[in-house]
Design brief:
The protein has 23 helices and 19 strands.
């Protein structure tokens, strides 16, 4: 065995070792995204409209620090808190199940003020009649709803507090209260206030609400006070926490929320694992049965490909400290595409080796030529998708960027395992004389079909399908989009028994939600999805538990997207698609020296995305972020398929100079048809497994991929290839 082969084998073993080290144990190296293990994702917007120009400058930074301190004190493991843009903060809280408490803790301004209550009865009557005297404000006490006329100017604020703690008031049935300790300056001020206002009432106002208004009986020099307000123990603990840490510099509103309950997260994991195992068994089994020994080598490469993806994710935080190793549902999509392209690379190599063997070349020569001839197609298709992945990361949002990162790692791994690992294995076997022949099965013989001759029929068919789909899509308007882009709120509930939809609809009408949509799933009718245009999650949940007390109702997930956030997400998704297509166009034009090839390939790619979009609209499925991820996956797979045929056309141009372009394209499509059917069929089966066994969360994604992969094969043969001929003739 030559030294070169030994060095390659040693290098491969080192790479495997590094990947295994950073991949395992999985639970410590790779975090599961919130969509898999449960938790909360919040996009908060800091409202600086009421601040002066000089306070606005660092309001978002100060708010971020306050939120970070609150969350740290709350005890959330591995939270992510990041500034986005000028006035937005992204908060991710893995494993958090008490949604309402978390939102209250994060979003509470915690502006504590002490205000003197007016004792002038005439002024109070005037205020209650609608005329509030200047310098005063009318508020109701939370204790007993008593109307109080407060001096507008606070005599003391929360920034004078040094500590806040929970204690239990023995005189009020052990009710929790929040005790306050003022700093030295605040204690002195509080002593003066109480000394100068004996007999008057002092209102304790938190975020504009009067918690209590005790009467001052004597001067209080101790620098201590108490807030009462009929709190639960948790409420008093959270209030003490936010008061200790300090107030937010400005109010905040939630622009986007995604809360996934632990039950749904575990279901997503279970369904994803089940679908992956079924799809994996088929892929590995097919490669083994069809390519025999070469199939075993390919299966080894696929296994190492998956290991390298996991190892790459684990290595990310080491190489790039700002990027975390997090696996999400879009990330799984990236793995699916990269494994599909890894299968494609191995099929390309094996089919090329088969051609060389059928031409009578010795095994060593056939293997060498097979890899050499397959390399350009593998490189071009993978590099094209890498360009798209890079642009998706630059212009996409969180889920799309997660897809791009995982896809990038997978593509690099697939090229390494397909080109380097499998070739080294073959070279070792041949050098040791363990391999003297390489038999393979062959189900699809070389065809002589006139594909180009049917182009006009296919052009018409494609136009009919696309126009029909787009007509339905535009007719639906905003209803064609999920809440990711249209805005609104989504709640998913699990019941112990199946609840009739009619009863749920009556209940929602009682709440004034006539526009709400209710979806019950055939495979699991105990799960109900409710979509509304308004934010009434707490009201809906409370009413459901009141109406169905014996149903053990579980909140599986809550998603809320405001109109501004929805518009932002839609714009970013569109930018990601456009820029990735532009990158593909430029690279293909450069590699094939003609814009004819590039434009035809991109048109075929757009064709596949539009057909998939149309089928979503026709079948009543809405477009969400996972659908966009599927569109991007289709685009990558489609251009990969097209480039393989383009590469064969380029090769045949060098070998057969007497043929017309019409004949060359037909010949190339026929020569690569077996590879196209094999690769697409294997990948399609994997996606079908996700569609059938992957659960409701992945249903839209898998359905879109199935449509896209089928139309991808069709467009490569009947759209991209004929268009090259049509434009070349015009020129």
């Amino acid at each position: 065995m030559g030294k070169r082969v030994l060095y390659k084998a040693a290098f491969i073993l080192v790479i495997i070792g590094i990947c295994a080290y950073f991949a395992f144990p999985l639970d410590k190296r790779i975090n599961l995204g919130l969509d898999l293990k449960g938790g909360m994702h919040l996009l908060l917007k800091v409202d600086t409209s009421n601040l002066s120009e000089q306070a606005k400058e660092d309001a978002c930074d100060r708010a971020l620090e306050v939120i970070r301190n609150r969350i740290d004190a709350f005890g959330v493991r591995e939270p992510s808190i990041q500034k986005q843009g000028i006035d937005e903060i992204v908060v991710q809280l893995p494993g958090v199940t008490d949604r309402d408490r978390a939102i209250e803790l994060i979003g509470r301004t915690a502006l504590l003020e002490f205000k003197i209550v007016s004792s002038d009865i005439d002024k109070l009557k005037l205020a209650m009649e609608g005329t509030v005297p200047e310098g005063y404000e009318l508020r109701n006490s939370l204790d007993d709803n008593e109307p109080l006329l407060l001096e507008k100017e606070a005599v003391l604020a929360g920034d004078s507090i040094s500590n806040a703690a929970v204690r239990f008031d023995q005189s009020s049935f052990n009710e929790p209260v929040v005790s306050l300790e003022f700093n030295s300056k605040g204690a002195q001020k509080f002593a003066e206030i109480t000394a100068n206002n004996i007999g008057r009432r002092l209102a304790i106002v938190l975020d504009g609400k009067v918690q209590s208004a005790p009467r001052i009986k004597e001067a209080i020099p101790s620098g201590q006070a108490v807030i009462t307000g009929r709190f639960t123990p948790e409420q008093s603990q959270d209030l003490a926490l936010v008061l200790r840490i300090g107030a937010l510099p400005a109010p905040m509103r939630i622009e986007e929320e995604r809360t996934v309950g632990p039950l749904l997260g575990q279901d997503s994991i279970n369904n994803g694992v089940k679908a992956s195992i079924i799809g994996g068994i088929f892929v590995f089994g097919f490669m083994l049965l069809y390519y025999l020994l070469a199939g075993i080598v390919a299966d080894i490469a696929l296994s190492l490909n998956l290991l390298m993806i996991l190892g790459g994710l684990g290595l990310l935080p080491v190489l790039f400290p700002g990027i975390s190793a997090t696996l999400t549902l879009p990330g799984i999509a990236g793995i699916a595409l990269s494994l599909g392209m890894a299968v494609d690379a191995n099929v390309l190599i094996n089919e090329r080796i088969r051609e060389e063997l059928e031409a009578g070349r010795p095994l060593r020569t056939a293997v060498a030529n097979g890899y050499s001839r397959a390399f350009t197609a593998i490189f071009d298709s993978n590099f094209t998708t890498l360009i798209a992945a890079f642009l998706l990361f630059q212009f996409g949002t969180g889920p799309i960027r997660g897809f791009a990162v995982t896809l990038t790692i997978g593509l690099i791994a697939s090229m390494f395992t397909a080109i380097v690992v499998t070739r080294t294995i073959f070279e070792i076997f041949i050098s040791l004389k363990w391999l003297k022949s390489l038999p393979m099965l062959k189900f699809i013989k070389v065809t002589k079909i006139d594909f180009i001759g049917k182009r006009k029929i296919c052009y018409c068919l494609s136009l009919i399908v696309i126009i029909t789909g787009l007509t339905v899509f535009f007719k639906k308007g905003s209803n064609a989009f999920g809440i990711d882009f249209a805005g609104g709120q989504l709640q998913e509930y699990s019941f112990k028994n199946t609840v009739p939809v009619d009863q749920l609809r009556v209940l929602l009408k009682e709440l004034g939600l006539n526009d709400a949509s209710i979806q019950q799933f055939k495979d699991n009718p105990k799960v109900v999805l409710i979509k509304t245009s308004s934010e009434k999650n707490e009201v809906i949940t409370g009413k459901l538990k009141e109406k169905f007390p014996d149903e053990d109702i579980q909140v599986l997930r809550i998603e809320k997207v405001g109109p501004i956030a929805g518009k932002h997400l839609k714009g970013k998704a569109l930018s990601a698609l456009i820029w990735s297509m532009a990158g593909i166009l430029i690279y293909v034009a450069f590699r094939f020296k003609h814009f004819n090839f590039a434009i035809a390939g991109v048109i075929a790619l757009i064709h596949d995305v539009l057909v998939a979009l149309g089928f979503l609209a026709i079948t009543g499925r809405q477009i969400d972020l996972l659908s966009v991820t599927a569109f991007l996956t289709i685009a990558g797979y489609s251009i990969n398929d097209t480039i393989v045929i383009y590469d064969r056309v380029r090769e045949n141009m060098r070998l057969t100079r007497k043929m017309s372009l019409y004949e060359l394209i037909n010949l190339s499509v026929n020569q690569t048809l077996g590879r196209t059917i094999l690769t697409s069929g294997v990948t399609l089966f994997t996606v079908a497994a996700i569609f059938i066994f992957g659960g409701e969360v992945l249903s839209n994604f898998a359905f879109t991929l199935m449509v896209g992969f089928v139309t991808g094969v069709y467009s490569t043969v009947y759209i991209a290839s004929p268009l090259v001929l049509a434009w070349t003739r015009k020129k």
